[in-house]
From TrEMBL:
Protein name: Transcriptional regulator family: Fungal Specific TF
Positions of region (Disordered): 99-123
Transmembrane segments: 12-34
Key words of the record: Membrane, Transmembrane, Transmembrane helix
UniProt feature, compositional bias: Polar residues: 99-109
Species assigned in the record: Penicillium desertorum
Length: 123
């Protein structure tokens, strides 16, 4: 459904009903990237990138999305830095315009908001 909405440029019309589910499922994908087997990680990486594209597109009109975007971006970056994933690309957050048009970048290890304990939890 989200792919259809995005392809037809209807995300803004459905934003109120899709924001909470996108944020929720993105959290699940991040856990799957960290703890899933290879196949689950690959699918979760793809779907997490898609969710980040949706959030990137909506953050210019919805301040709550702009507030959460860096948190999820940092979490994806942290899991990539831990060697658990392979090159998870996340759209660049520039603050002006859509970064989808600016392309995506490879995640680095800068800007971690927390550290991981031995069980994979944030401390």
């Amino acid at each position: 459904m989200l792919e259809i909405l995005m392809a037809n440029d209807l995300l803004y019309a459905a934003a109120a009903s899709i924001l909470a589910p996108v944020l929720s499922v993105l959290s699940i994908y991040i856990v799957n990237i960290l703890r899933g087997d290879t196949g689950v990680r690959m699918i979760s990486q793809h779907r997490a990138r898609f969710c980040m594209l949706i959030l990137d597109k909506l953050q210019d009109r919805f301040p709550v999305v702009a507030a959460y975007y860096p948190i999820y971006e940092s979490s994806l970056r942290r899991h990539s830095a831990g060697g658990q994933t392979q090159d998870v690309g996340v759209p660049e957050c520039t603050g002006t315009g859509s970064s989808v048009q600016n392309g995506s970048r490879q995640l680095g290890n800068e800007g971690n908001l927390g550290s991981m304990d031995s069980t994979g939890g944030i401390i």
